[in-house]
Amino acid sequence: MVREDAHGPVHRIAGVDISSTRFDPANLVHAAVVVLSWPELTPLATAAATERATMPYIPGYLGFREVPALLVAWQRLATTPDLVPDLVMVDGHGVAHPRGLGIAAHLGALLDVPAIGVAKSVLVGRPAAPLPEEPGATVPLLWKGRRLGTVLRTKRRSNPLIISTGHRVGEASAVEWVRRCLRGYRLPEPTRLAHLAANAERCDAHGG
Predict the structure, then answer these.
(1) What is the DSSP secondary-structure string of 140-163?
(2) What residues contact 92, with CB distance under 8 A and at least 6 apart?
(3) According to DSSP H, which parts of 79-207 are helical?
(4) Contact at 8 Å (CB) between 141 and 127?
(5) Which strands, in side-by-side order, build the sheet including 87-90?
(6) Cβ-count burial of 135 within 10 angstroms (0-12 exposed, 13-18 middle, 19+ buried)?
(7) pLDDT at res. 208
(8) pLDDT score of 22
(9) Model confidence over 45-99: pLDDT tens digits?
(10) What are the phi and psi torsion angles at 60 (to 5°)?
(11) Which of the residues in the chain have pLDDT under 50?
């Protein structure tokens, strides 16, 4: 994994997300990739896939369970060069992970695409200080004396997000990209739309 900025101009940003449950007897993983134009953040395309997981639900190893379905959805976009994203926001952790390999780092490294982890809760570590209520406020996320990511308040009276580099995007740039993609919701627009698309794929796969 590359933890520094190593990408070219950004014209398209993708959001990716997974919808699944460890209690599903069919063990299905529902993946979605939504591509948006930058800077307009206009949706350009959505690709989804439902795959049977090949390993059980194990906290800390979700990338191995969920990434295969994301790769199938990604390949459905890759056939159209004009839709290949220049930057990806993943609903999950990047290096803010006990082994430094959350799903955003896992996917970014496999595809060799710039990736950012945008997680809804802390997996490991703790904020370095209390986080102010103002939208845009940040504090470092620390674990064992080192910085794993950034705790970012995106909306007043909402729980913060955990931002961390996944691949080829530095920590400061990752936070800035997330801030620039906010449109009044807790989640940045790419992962917000991917979340909706993954839930829609799950509903379709289960017959509504």
Answers:
(1) EEEETTEEEEEEE--STTS--EEE
(2) 18, 62, 63, 102, 103, 104, 117, 118, 119
(3) 103-111, 171-180, 189-205
(4) yes
(5) 43-52, 28-37, 12-19, 87-90, 115-119, 161-167, 146-152, 138-143, 126-127
(6) middle
(7) 61
(8) 77
(9) 999 999 999 888 888 888 999 999 999 999 998 778 889 999 999 999 999 999 9
(10) 95, -15
(11) none
Predicted confidence at residue 24, as pLDDT, reads 87
Instruction: Tell me which of 3.90.1150.10, 3.30.300.30, 3.20.20.70, 3.30.2170.10 is the CATH number of domain 12-205.
Output: 3.30.2170.10
Query: What is the DSSP-derived secondary structure letter of residue 95?
Result: S
For residue 81, what pLDDT is reported?
82
Domain ranges of the chain: 12-205
Residues in Cβ contact with 200 at an 8 Å cutoff, skipping those fewer than 6 apart: 32, 48
